[in-house]
Amino acid sequence: MTSFVKPKIRRTNEPLNALGLARADYEGAMSTLCAGCGHDSVTAAIVRAFYELSIPTHRALKISGIGCSSKTTSYFMNDSHGANTVHGRMPSFATGALSANSDLPTIGISGDGDSLSIGLGQMAHAMRRNVNMLYVIENNGVYGLTKGQFSASADLGSLPKKGDPNEFPAIDPVAFALSVGATFVARSFSGDRKQLVSLIKAGLKHKGFAVIDVISPCVSFNDHKGSTKSYAHTYAFYSKAVHADYIAPSEEIVAAYDEGEVMPIELHDGGYLQLRKLEADYDPTERGAAFGRAIDSDRNNEILTGLLYLDETQPDLHQTQNMEDRPLNEIPYAELNPGAEALSALQAEFR
Amino acid sequence: MSGPGLNDFVIKIGTVNGTGSASANGLLMKSIFRMGIPVVGKNVFPSNIQGLPTWYEIRVSGDGHAGRSGEVHMMVAMNQATYDQDLAELATGGVLVYDSTWPRPQLESRPDVTVIGVPLSQMCSEVVKAARSRILMKNMAYVGAVAALVDIDLSVIRSLIEETFAAKAKLIDSNMQAVQLGYDYVKENYECPLRFRVAALDQTKGKVMIDGNTAASLGCVYAGATFGAWYPITPSTSLMDGFVKYCKKLRVHPETGKNKYCIIQAEDELAAAGLIIGAARNGARAFTPTSGPGISLMSEWIGFAYFTEIPVVFFDIQRTGPSTGMPTRTQQCDIQTCAYASHGDTKHIVLYPADPGECFDFAVKSFDLAERFQTPVFFLSDIDIGMNDWMVNELSWDDTYIPDRGKVLSEDDLSKMESFSRYLDVDGDHIPYRTLPGTDPKGAYFLRGSGHNKHARYTELGHEYQEVVDRLHAKWASAKDAVPAPVVTKATSPTRYGVIAIGSSDAAVTEARTRLEADGMPVDYMRVRGFPFSTEVEAFIAGHDEVFIVEQNRDAQLHGLLLNETRVAREKLIPVLHYSGEPLNYRFVYEEMMTRIKLRKIA
Asked: CA A36 to CA A46: how far, in whole Å?
């Protein structure tokens, strides 16, 4: 099957963002996923988030590994440079790409197979290095493209369409990210567009590694009774801890909030993340508590969502590497070449 | 055959690793070099940090032979555990030097070997208190003993020690004192110098003693590489060490203190490959140093970079395989792996440097070729080149050099174009145009390792896929005259025999060829320096009845590659294979070729 070009539909009086672009300008090729796939909803949320943030499409990078989720990078932002790389290895490619040009807003799209099995190591190290990117895990508990084998995020005892229940405990990407030290950890649901768009925007604006675990049901292989990653199950066990809204530098923070309920956190671009607690005792800046709450929710079959942890104070990879602000790929060769004289001088130790 | 004689002999030093003998051995070699005499050092060391046998071989060659001779004339046996082996290795007429603090009568078992006992430990214990210092001083004392035996100028040794310890003046005297102890003892108790000894020459002007990894790291700096990623692996580590060192020295903004480079130690080789491919995709000159096991792990990404046409450079410093193999021993065993790395139809550009001088030049060339042809380039070195000190011409740089970044479209270029297709062969040279992210919306495209057509769109249509992979093959083949051309050494008289080699086999093959010719067996020599094979390679084989293919692996990999990639007749090619893990020596090559030629003559 070749890829389908999606016709651009322009409506009259459609709203435009600060760049004068319509939402349709952020769309991509026609999705070839199954009808009703959660991933298509995530794609729509990504389109909306980039549109609302007025990010120039050609300045954005969208990178993925292999799998159903990874296919979706071609379903949004046609004018962005995309890369469908190697299974489980998107984090290293993204890290290299951002090292060469740190100016490009970068979104990585992965799945539970791509991230939690074959790619667990690379994801952990991208978190550890605090690479400045948004990393979305479209999590459905199964390998879709190879027809429904359990992935490492499948819950213990979850039933497959056919055959025996899953016999290993799940790797929870949120608890994992918290343990490794990711600086922005969130969970959402493909069926909650409003929350998801807010989190994507917040994640893109966070300086450092932002991970969003998005429960995104697989309608073909994991949406039946007994599955813990179905639409029905997710709706039933869904709870919200912290809502996050991005407030651009030009906007004012809504001053009317009750102390303790809304927490404004300043970002590197001068804007804010306005965190609204939906669970009274939850503090998204306390890593240990967030980890404990994540483990509890796993135990209670609860799907805890929202911005679960944020640390805006850690240096990202670019800072740790003490690199110039100017992207590496813009440094002219004349500045990189030490010259013949220097070469002769430094060989003194070899004479 | 060679030596021993004036400025023509081999000293081998057997020690225990982790005892600091490397600096003493380096001092010995460097002092001979400073006396203007060509010299080469080979380090045969264990994959271990402390306690196992290690050897250092110094060949003094007034004639400038750069390879190993295959004989040892003086053995400095400092490791009791290897006394028997070390004694056995000495050539007839050889000299064994050992620490006679604990006399070993069994070392007298060879009547054809002179044994020189020097009570090194005892002498050092008398003047040095600290245990660690005693060990280090014992090393310096054997330097002194050797200096007396082969007539090395003590003032040269002194000035080298002064340079080394310029910042710690106290150490100059204590080290010189130890040298003097060994020197004086030997002078007093034995007849010096030996009949094989050094005498100052003037043949090292304009030369440096440098290892290939250091030279290659300098090549990366001068090529303008800004991104390096790696996973530590012997024997490639010193290449990245060099890059770090020279970047810190040469690539930090003098005012802001900010770096104009990025080096990432990856979590494994898979990540190292992904990192450089990502960086190269975004326009940085990027590389990774590794060895065979790393290439195995990186193969998945290598195929991706080949198929998506991303310019990256892989430095493979070969060590013996298979599997972990002998990590500190040398081979040329990744010839075929690198030529065809990754699954599916893949073919790569490979460069074969032969010494540190070429490591510097070819490192730069690798980046130019990678970007010109938009493909991974393999720089195939080995332990012998990478980690041993070779005497080469001082590295030189042409300040007019401009990196060949290949066909990259600027914002301006894109604005003048109606549309852009990433994999379209616009110029008919099989090389498409590429764009960097962030330049212009028109230049955006989707990079994928899955089937794609010339417009970079996903495809499962056979003819669209074939069009792309056929162009990739044509592009690869067109690099055959862009890789460094072979170097041919013709015999002075016409001959039906030829010999082909690559990389670190060069020094031994060159010497064997010279000696064969002197012994009435003229052979023409072609050193191949790149893959795909230049046009001349096939012509060279066609021009001879029999061609020896000398290489350092069991499976005749270069031989196989020649058969696979040229139309030459199998019967013409005669493999000469050396794969013990020790650097090749000329005697082996000479004898293999001579035996074969003689057999032919009888037949």
From this structure: 17
| Residue B229 DSSP SS3 | strand
Q: Would the CB atoms of B446 and A321 count as touching at under 8 Å? A: no
Instruction: Quote the ipTM score.
Output: 0.96
Q: Which CATH superfamily is domain A23-350 in?
A: Thiamin diphosphate (ThDP)-binding fold, Pyr/PP domains (3.40.50.970)
State the pLDDT confidence band at A254, using cuts at 50, 70 and 90: low
Give the residue from A74, A337, A344, A349 with the most B CB atoms within 10 Å of its CB, the best one to mutate.
A337
B483 burial via Cβ count (<10 Å: 0-12, 13-18, 19+): buried
- Would the pLDDT of B2 be above 70? no
Find the CB nearest A121 among B209, B268, B437. B268
Domain B8-189 bears CATH identifier 1.20.120.80: no
φ and ψ of B424, to 5 deg: -85, 135
Q: Which two tokens stand for residue B109?
A: 């078992």
> Within chain B, which residue ranges are assigned CATH 3.40.50.920?
487-602
Kindly report whether the global pTM for this prediction surpasses the value 0.90.
Answer: yes
**B223: closest chain A residue by CA:** A337
pLDDT tens for A161-218 read 989 999 999 999 999 999 999 999 999 999 999 999 999 999 999 999 999 999 999 9
Question: How many beta-carbon pairs under 8 angstroms link A with B?
Answer: 227
- Nearest chain A residue to B211 by CA distance is A350
Contact B301, B269 (CB under 8 A): no
Taking CA–CA distances from A82, the nearest residue in chain B reads: B446
**A5 band by pLDDT with thresholds 50, 70 and 90:** low
CB-CB under 8 Å, B457 with A323: no
How does pLDDT run across B367-393, given as a tens digit for each residue?
A: 999 999 999 999 999 999 999 999 999
The single residue listed with the structure tokens 């852009």 is B420
